[in-house]
Amino acid sequence: MSLVGNLFSSSIGRKFLMAVTGLVLVGFVIGHLVGNLQIFESPDHINGYAAFLHQLGPLLWVARIVLLLCVGLHIWAATVLTLENREARESNGPRSAKKWIRATLASRMVRWTGYVVLAFVLYHLAQFTLGVTGTAHFKENLPRYTMTADYRVAGFPVIKAGAEVLDVHSMVILGFQSPLVSLFYIVAVGLLSLHLLHGLDSFFQTVGWRSAQWSGTLRKIALVFCAAYFLGNLIIPGSVLIGAKGLREGYKAPVTVATNR
Amino acid sequence: MAKLESKVPSGPLADKWRKHKAEIKLVNPANKRKYDIIVVGAGLAGSSAAATLAELGYKVKSFVFHDSPRRAHSIAAQGGINAAKNYQNDGDSVHRLFYDTLKGGDYRSREANVHRLAEVSVNIIDQCAAQGVPFAREYGGLLANRSFGGAQVSRTFYARGQTGQQLLLGAYSALSRMVGAGAVELHTNSEMLDLVLVDGHAKGIIVRDLITGEIQRHAADAVILATGGYGNVFNLSTYARGSNASAIWRAYKRGACLANPCYTQIHPTCIPVSGDYQSKLTLMSESLRNDGRIWVPKKKEDRLKEPGAIAEVDRDYYLERMYPAFGNLCPRDIASRAAKRVCDEGRGVGETGLGVYLDFADAIRRLGENGVRERYGNLFDIYREITAESAYQVPMRIYPAVHYTMGGLWVDYNLMSNIPGLFVLGEANFSDHGANRLGASALMQGLADGYFVIPYTIGDYLASHKPGSRPSPDAPEFMAAEAGVRALNARLLANKTGVPVDHFHKRLGKIMWEHCGMARNAASLRKALQEIPKLREEFWATVKVPGSGATLNQSLERAGRVADFIELGELLCLDALTREESCGGHFREEHQFPDGECKRDDENFAFVSAWEFQGEGKAPLLNKEPLNYEFVKMSVRNYK
Amino acid sequence: MVADNSSTPLSVTLRVWRQAGPDQPGKFVDYPAKDLSPHMSFLEMLDVVNDELTTKGEEPIAFAHDCREGICGTCSCTINGKPHGPGRGVATCQVYMRSFRDGDVIVVEPFQAQPFPVIKDLVTDRSAFDKIMQAGGFITVRAGSAPDANSIPVPKEDADLAMDAAACIGCGACVAACKNASAMLFVAAKVSQLGLFPQGQPERDKRVLAMVGTMDSLGFGNCTNQYECSAACPKTISHDFIARMNRDYLAASFRHAFKPASASTGGAG
User: Fold this and answer.
1) What pTM value is reported for the model?
2) Which of A92, A94, A110 is closest, CB to CB, to C109?
3) Would you say B122 and C130 are in contact if contact means Cβ atoms under 8 Å apart?
4) CATH 1.20.58.100 segments of chain B
């Protein structure tokens, strides 16, 4: 069978696709978190960062398409494998429920955490990228922010001081000031961390880099990573909710009357 | 009267096999595929034979009553496999392995067969290593050896305590390869219930599909039986529950001679019986005797004391005392009888008094607990599973149990029985072990027969039969045999009320063990010969087999096997009664030296007893094949 | 550790799956089993129950068994939801009644997996494992053609690891323990055993591709890396071998795609 055939139709091949796409997505969520944590700096950072990403134009679209493909493949593989797995258990004998011996909670919940994460991603995109929910606080509808300093990437000033950019900083904080939204966000990233706990461990097993010699260490690394990821994500809505992080100085609520452009 | 021609080639001992190979007839490669060969059984001998014959180009049909060839009971052999490789540089040679095996067999085997076995032993190791059998190795990457009972060199190759398993899986992988290549037609869950003879030649078998109950007829140009031994005639043994003698017994009833049935091996190191419900005795590998010391209390009154509470001076390390040269490593029959003797003296340990200690305290002191674990860990685990005791802390309790049968269907040097076209391999034949088999020699014989003997010798028979001359499975002989099998099954299923099969098996086992076990005498054998026919009558009158023959019916399978065991048991006792001497696994109390050793009678009993069926209800006929020792002088075995 | 050695008899209720044939509906049936010695094995207890059933004129419970010492891999009951029952590293035949308490209800089922259809009661058809072996679970070596065994040294560590994998008894507990009925542990054990030997290298890629392909085609599920298989394995074979096989399979797939091949390979043979 050809390589493509093996990857897309064999059990190990599809698991490999699952592992590799999963790893790409892990990379993305790490980057995403690091970017978001800039909210704790001056508004120049996160707003400059957002403006910089938008400025990438076609490159941004390439990244988006790659991510979308990964999500698609990841979900496709999961679906196909799960359907096969169900069928494989259907015997002509008893249909007893499986009793677990040692499978971890994360591994047993992985399909359900996957569903919630998918729902969350859709909501998250709707809220912060597309602005379908809560249009009032969507970045496009907020007053523009004027950069007070250069935003630099690798030392190059990519967004200059004085530039008018979208006010992502205020959008995030306004968004998280709703307890319901924050709570959903916290629960979702919690489940995503659980999803990653099984995913990371599985990645190494599926590509064949896991062994008894270091599986304990790997497990610990995965745990620490997932805990850090969760805390990192928790701190943003958390600090907004408890009021530790408020709107930036000089933020003015938009006038509800339609602006004459 | 059967014609028993051993067909041992002439010439010097060491050249016989080479000469024979050069002289026997061959089948040309293009013709091989025109011959069908049936192989019954898929243990070491059966799997290796089926695979090898298929590699040569024959069309092979392999039959096994298990659900997979990998389950055959060769898988349970623990200790190892002998080979005269002399990798240890300790003086081993083909001749020494030959001599040890012959001597271990108490001079009751054929010289030429044993020598051939020793010769091909070296090829077996090569073959298995190439197959990926994970033999134990030294740090340099070369093969390791251990020593075993009855030898003063280290020539035993092993794979932890699972050598039989690994060798069988090797043979099974070779067989699987040929099944995958379409060269072997594999019939699992298929039990042979009769042999079909056409014009006096073995040309097929009748088989019951154990799942569907279908009775099938299969024709071939030759039939190979590799169906193992008949030790389950004793009910309690180290054999698998399914191990049975039906294939060889039904071949016997078709005229194949059964040789030396009384040569049964009792293994000295098994876990003692714990209750009536017991279905099986578990072996603790003989290799344990390398490091364990066997003892019982010197005084009867100490026998129920905690072993730790018995002082060193109050312990009797009886094997070391009686056989200082070989000590705990003396051959199996000797070690077993010594255990029986000390227990008969009332010094046996455990609740039943039928047990002796196998103590690792010294070994743990010498090697450390981990050292012992490394060598025997899995055996200690098995022991703990069964007895709930840790042998690291208290000595194991062991007792002898039936383990192997040296007797079997009579075969000539070509491994062909007195029925032309019927070949018998492995434990199912009688050929190589005489009256006693040495440890680690069963695996050697099974694989020697399958990989390196039958592929040559079967050609000699087939070459004189035109390709395509085999009969049709619809020939009248096949139809008659099928009808016979159906009638037998119907008879077994007939009783509506009665007693389960196991009940009869247990009773047969008790008769056999009591009267024809480790030690036999004329009076008890006569008693057994009275009791067994009665049991047989009772069996047919009252055995209850529920269900039908048209589905999986384990009671029916067992009933057929037990019916055969009852008959075989009778023949076994008759053979034991007739052999008025002690040799190897056959110990007649009337024939012993004052120190309790076997007293052989070479003048009157240096022959193979080949029993020939004469018809139901008639006494079998005893044929004798004289054992002519051309090269070795028969002497009294001495392990002191 | 000297475990509980008491001889107090116990009585239990067996809840056994009874199914007359592959196409018949099955159901759980309760049978009392009274006054059992704790030293009795689980299968000996079934023997006793079967003898009682036979005497009463009922059909005994069909169950697969043979060697009764944990090596042939024939026995295959799921006891109280776990393949081969309580205890680690044992087969059904090595379960003793001392593992249960007086008054327990013991649920006994056949292994549950689509590729292991029930034949009768507790007996399943596991010939799918044989088919996987036939696809590539071997090293091609004709009898008589092997070089001297010591001409191919094998590092002791590799030989020991291969032996760990080779300990597989082919019982199918790994499949039954897996929520997906995956045969990865069984296949990985054989692939790893042969792949660890120098003798196994020539067919290494071909073997793993063929065995995994056959495994997939027989309807076994996929691995979810939950390691239930190795937890239920009577020989405690490690799921590390699965990782090893994954690597082997992927490497073989990539190599296979890019390695130049002779036009005549696969001809006469």
Assistant:
1) 0.95
2) A94
3) no
4) 476-607
